[in-house]
Write a structure and sequence with these properties.
Blueprint (H helix, E strand, L loop, with lengths): L5 H11 L10 H11 L2 H8 L6 H8 L4 E2 L15 E3 L2 E3 L3 E3 L5 H4 L5 H12 L3 E3 L7 H7 L5 E5 L5 H14 L4 E4 L9 H5 L12 H4 L2 H4 L10 H11 L9 H7 L4 E4 L4 H9 L4 E4 L13 H12 L5 E3 L6 H9 L4 E4 L1 H33 L4 H7 L2 E2 L1
The structure holds ligand FNR.
Ligand FNR binds next to helix 3.
Length: 387
Amino acid sequence: MPHYGDYQNAIYIAGLSGTVPEWPVDHVTLRARAEAHWPAAVRDYVQGGCGDEHTQDANAAAFRHWGMIPRMMVDTGTRDLSCTLFGHPLPSPLFMAPIGVNGICTDDGHGDLAAAHASAATGVPFCASTLGNDPLEDVRAACGETPALFQLYTSRDPDVAASIVARAEAAGYGALVVTLDTWVTGWRPRDLNTGNFPQLRGHVLANYFTDPAFRALLARPPEEDRQAAIMTWAATFGRVLTWEDMAWLRSLTRMPIVLKGICHPDDARRAIDAGADGIYVSNHGGRQANGGIAAIDLLPGVAQAVAGRVPVLFDSGVRSGTDMVKAIALGADLVGLGRPYCYGLALGGADGCAHVLRSVLAEADLLMAVNGWPTLAAVRDAGARRT
Ligand code: FNR
């Protein structure tokens, strides 16, 4: 039976004939190479966070104060990382978190398609953002057989929101991820100091510009008056959602609805009571609000409140396969990789992205092999301790 850890063997065997991996397998080197590769505006937008970036830094650092205890004399010769999400079988609990500037992360401006191709190649689901350089239909098609999720930034114009959701459902996305923390943009000094906000420069708006309901708001189509279309986008972006909107969201789609940005156990309980099909623990990688608690430290409380009633998705600060396993141990059903896969996109497009996903999965698989956890259930039983 093939294992994700086999990626390690392939690297060592290639090394015998002098071939080393085209891209680094460790996060620090990968990040440094992506930062050197990108134009400054893309680098700062991807890497930047809110305020002095304390929450952003804490997200990743906090994984270090969680530790796991290995078990010995367990047969881990065969590992099984498979799981399901809303009835779809998945080979592992890893997925790609929605990143609204994937489009400009690759040199060719088609990073969403590259991420989708990496998803098709690896079986790691891609959560496509509303913000993209390619229409959501094309992105879904590029994901191939791998299930995909669609992340909604809810337009203030209800017809535009409904239209985009209907398109996502028709295109075959398996779940709607509604982001709750981004009706305004957080205070991001790196971008403010350079006066750079990609969307206002016309980037990553393909889903709006191709949308019939959005186009109906315009006096002239975006192909003729791009600036007016951008300004209409800015004027209609970001509906403030409250619990009362759940019924409306539900009326838009038969897709399972996942609420992204839930950090408090009471919000998780309320979301389930309001009909949410999944809870997504995330603080947006520290980009939206500073002064928060690292997301991984909040995961156990939310998972306890959810108590297995719906799947718990998690992101913010995941940098390695070890982090992925810790998130499972602390209650996540699915673990979202964020910035690291953008680094792979930057350096090698779809192949670079797939390399990052394979590296994370190989590290996770080998950790499970060494530590006596042949399944995700065993990881959950083992748990993690705050050190
Ligand atoms: C994001 N994130 C995000 N989230 C979302 O729901 N829709 C989006 O369009 C975006 N766009 C976006 C752009 C960039 C450049 C980043 C870095 C992040 C948040 C994303 O889904 C996820 O929550 C974070 O990336 C997790 O933090 P780390 O692990 O990447 O630090």
